[in-house]
Specification:
- Pfam families: MPI_cupin_dom, PMI_typeI_cat.
- This is Phosphohexomutase.
- It is built from 7 helices and 19 strands.
- By secondary structure, it is mainly beta.
- It folds into 2 domains: 210 residues, Jelly Rolls; 78 residues, Sandwich (Jelly Rolls).
- Strands 1-2-5-12-7-10 form a 6-stranded antiparallel β-sheet, with no helix packed on it.
- A hairpin with a 4-residue loop joins strand 14 and strand 15.
- The longest helix has 9 residues.
- The two termini are 24 Å apart.
- 41% of the residues are buried.
Amino acid sequence: MKLYPLTFEPIYKERIWGGTKLKDFLNKSFEANFIGESWELSTVTNDVSVVSNGEFTGLNLNELIKKYPTEILGKNCIEKYGFVFPLLFKFLDAKEDLSIQVHPNDELAKKRHNSFGKTEMWYVMQADENARLVIGFKESTNKKDYLKHLEDKTLVTILNETSVKKGDTFFLGTGTVHAIGAGVLIAEIQQTSDITYRLYDWDRLDANGNSRELHTDLAVEAINYDKTKTKVQYKNQPNESVNLVQCPFFTTNILEVSGNYNWNKKKESFTVFMCTEGSFVLVTPDSKSKFKKGNTVLIPAALEEFQIIGETSLLEITI
């Protein structure tokens, strides 16, 4: 069997804070209102991505890995995680502020939920005027002071807010308190985990007049109370892969292609491309496929070389 670049059916998530940018900017197609997330590539339980192109159409990612584990994942991934796809890829549209939240590390998530932790990164694809993110504390604090501010509904006064624009990139280690602000469209790369502890939800109510559940007790032990640096500094280079994030769980580069780019790698890991701008044709020895902004493509580890032709900006993620 000759493997090829794989695309998957998006898994749409309706959220109280969702909007229409996934349609308007990324050409996603759905009927529901308030879609906040498009899960592009997932093996989260009950949300496993299904192949949407080529001979494997209709197979889900777990089934495909079972058939071709080394060819899909690569030896680096298998040595670290076994025959498990370890990452989750999303596009998020925040029409309103998300809740202020935190994610546990691997140790805590394993103990409490038998899950990976949730280290993640954000790449801002579009931001309205005056849009901002909430990331971390203004100054290092402690559990006692944090709980006092939470009780007094003054938590936001000790959190760091930063204005954002297209191209801004942030790395969020586990334990970082954060929230995506209204008016921001984001590409998110994270560990395969859906564990979120909600700290504060801006006192809002849902359509039935109910507030969403908070996870105060669970969050206390998960929070990193130190001031952290999260913004990534980088400079794009035409037709060159520029590193954004390198951490134990994933490596993300940005690749700005203008014209032709010959891509070569070893069979050590899968690669995922998230197209954040433009369009491109991906040519392998056995296939030729066209992709555009909003598409996410899984390159099996067994595909060692191909050509990218077009004018495009890609997030390039591997293990």
